[in-house]
């Protein structure tokens, strides 16, 4: 079962990989099939699937079956969790630097 609530450790772990960041960048433009996401990478379909599993477990993407195709889309809640944490961190960091 996939946890729909983003876990920050999983989110940032998923974001640490350049392939997964590239997949998220592509999904930011809109929904895509697994095959479309795999096209730009020189890796096997099982390797792409592993990356997608990490992104889904982190709550960063949704996957759904459409007939024989699997479609992926960005999960705004997962991305927002990372953005909110970074925004809070930057505010605290800026406040700590002020005299």
TrEMBL record:
<protein>
    <submittedName>
        <fullName>Transcriptional regulator</fullName>
    </submittedName>
</protein>
<dbReference type="InterPro" id="IPR036388">
    <property type="entry name" value="WH-like_DNA-bd_sf"/>
</dbReference>
<dbReference type="InterPro" id="IPR036390">
    <property type="entry name" value="WH_DNA-bd_sf"/>
</dbReference>
<dbReference type="GO" id="GO:0003700">
    <property type="term" value="F:DNA-binding transcription factor activity"/>
</dbReference>
<feature type="domain" description="HTH arsR-type">
    <location>
        <begin position="1"/>
        <end position="94"/>
    </location>
</feature>
<dbReference type="InterPro" id="IPR001845">
    <property type="entry name" value="HTH_ArsR_DNA-bd_dom"/>
</dbReference>
<dbReference type="InterPro" id="IPR011991">
    <property type="entry name" value="ArsR-like_HTH"/>
</dbReference>
<dbReference type="Pfam" id="PF12840">
    <property type="entry name" value="HTH_20"/>
</dbReference>
